[in-house]
Amino acid sequence: MQHTSIGKSSMFATGAQCLGTAQSPVRIAENVWLGAKATVAAGVSIGAGAVVAAGALVTADVPPDAIVVGRPARVIAHRTVVEDGRPSPEPVLAKVRDRARQGLPSMLDRSTQSVSRLKALNPDTATWDISDEALIDAELRGGASVEIARDCILIGRSNRQGGMSQLGGIELGTGVRLAAGVVIEAAGGVSVGAFSELSEGVTIVASTHDHSFRSLPWEEAPVRIGSRCVIGEGAILVGPLNIGDGAVIKPYSVVIRDVLENTVVHGVVQLMEIQE
């Protein structure tokens, strides 16, 4: 975050960024939610209680309690909420702390996350090729000969292993390949079918929030990817979502609805770079 003021109880998802400058700071009011890889441009103010969708590029001020999507972002709705308290990451953080106390691999202690220990705790991964430079705090299962490259981040467990949901965890079919920098947040469950490929910088998020409550309570939102799919570089997939066998997601797409098998899509929102 650069030259950004952030109000109380605002929360940011993976890869969200604010690009303020000394002359044009970003102002985030209280109780705001920024989705995965959302970007807020210099000089923008986001009103209290606003929700910014995953992958959005916010280039203009956002009113209080507005929901915005797109690149550039546009208002698609205004929240009508039950005033049940402020948003808080505490329920999720409590689960993370409990796992650490139980001695499970945890992002809070990198020394607990060796590949050898990971494989011992997840028997299905015996034949997997996992980079020592990946960060994995996840329940893993699946087929043989999976490849997980450097700088991947995989998190998410079922409630059997201290997670948020019975659907939590990651299932990777035989021959699945995760390229460098793939991020999978699988608290709500992620499965990838055999011989599918996730290209560099892909982000998958299997959870969401109930916008009808001020507290933005966490909800599971499973992501299911079929066999022999190709997910292009930098794509963002946000559940609940099903992608059919053989589908191709073009690079830098945002996918928030189901994709039929053997189709090629550019996603619901096509990403564009900020122009200097």
UniProtKB/TrEMBL annotation:
GO terms for molecular function: transferase activity. The keyword RNA-binding does not apply. Keywords: Acyltransferase, Lipid A biosynthesis, Lipid biosynthesis, Lipid metabolism, Repeat, Transferase. PROSITE patterns: HEXAPEP_TRANSFERASES. Coiled coil: none annotated. It holds the Pfam family Hexapep_2. InterPro entries: Hexapep, Hexapep_transf_CS, Hexapeptide_acetyltransf, Trimer_LpxA-like_sf. The keyword Repeat applies. Belongs to the transferase hexapeptide repeat family. PANTHER family: ACETYLTRANSFERASE C18B11.09C-RELATED (PTHR23416:SF23), SIALIC ACID SYNTHASE-RELATED (PTHR23416). This is Transferase. It comes from Pseudomonas aphyarum. The lineage of its organism: Bacteria, Pseudomonadati, Pseudomonadota, Gammaproteobacteria, Pseudomonadales.
